[in-house]
């Protein structure tokens, strides 16, 4: 069938019962077999429906692929099944002394154009319902993704809203063999923290920042390096400024370890209440213990060594106790032909002692006339009244009177008040008040280390 109107020819062909295709032209050519509608001309075009932006967006249930011309924006728009998308950029009006410039064009080709595609900010949301949004780069020393914020707020905000989610909100991995890089790096050029974590008051999390080391032969869960490597603070009576736990059940199983010129140091902010270092259980020191002040104990003071006769036992010897702070000096001396002798004490004796007392014991036979002939002068005293050649054992007791005792006379006090500080040690009053980290005592078996889920794709 051939229909001619206004000098244009309309051809409709039907071959072997296939769907009809149409040609509109003024040449008489049949339609191309691949086209449902074949329009050709050299002096005319196709006029697509024209409307305003409000009319376009008011079209009810537009079909996917619907095409219109937006008079307000001077550009073609098509509906992609979800939103309206600009098909072409707008054109700029002619330039002239009096002629106005045409409206600025917009498009959905660039990321910035996609943001406002379909309207202001309408293209800002990506529904990743068929895989992750990926940004790939192979440029050296460059960033795959960069966000810059020039006002208050955050540059990147990520959240996970599923309560049952077992994956982290942000995950980063690195395959670098360098120990100077990390999967996530926080850096501060001002007063802010490089990296921080926070558990809200309504949360039940155990830590604001958590580190997990799955190696079994070294490494650290959290490692801090700086003027102060790691700092912990707390405002709570039963809280910890810093805490270390080791869940191993065999020795040594160290909870907290310090290594340095001074391995571990402690300082109390209120020495009337507590101590710089305090142990809630037995304390053991492998090497020497130096005390710069007084040493007080409830139990005994002793030394313990391997028993010289019984290898399966230890031997203990105990200190003498006295209501006085005393130094003891002892020795033996042999009397001369006159039954006398001079005993020489250390040259520092008078510098650190006062209020002396003496004890003499004759050896070999009785010496009822034995006596101290001259008391201590400088650092010597003399004995007499014995037999020539007799051996005499002597003991001198002296009250300690060095510079420390002169500056701290209260150290001689034999009666002291029962302060809360002393009761903490001597009666264990604070032990039951200790709030353990997990709210329970050390488990009988090692605690299982958690393994955080890693999303592989």
Give structural attributes:
rod-shaped, 4-stranded mixed sheet, 457 residues, disordered N terminus, mainly beta, Immunoglobulin-like
Please describe what this structure looks like.
About 5% of the residues lie in helices and about 20% in strands. The protein is mainly beta and about 450 residues long. The longest helix has 7 residues. The strands form five sheets. The protein has a four-stranded mixed β-sheet, with no helix packed on it. A four-stranded mixed β-sheet has the order 5-6-7-8. The protein has a three-stranded antiparallel β-sheet with strand order 11-16-13. Among the domains are: about 40 residues, no CATH class; about 70 residues; about 80 residues, Sandwich (Immunoglobulin-like), CATH 2.60.40. The protein has five helices and 16 strands. The N terminus is likely disordered.
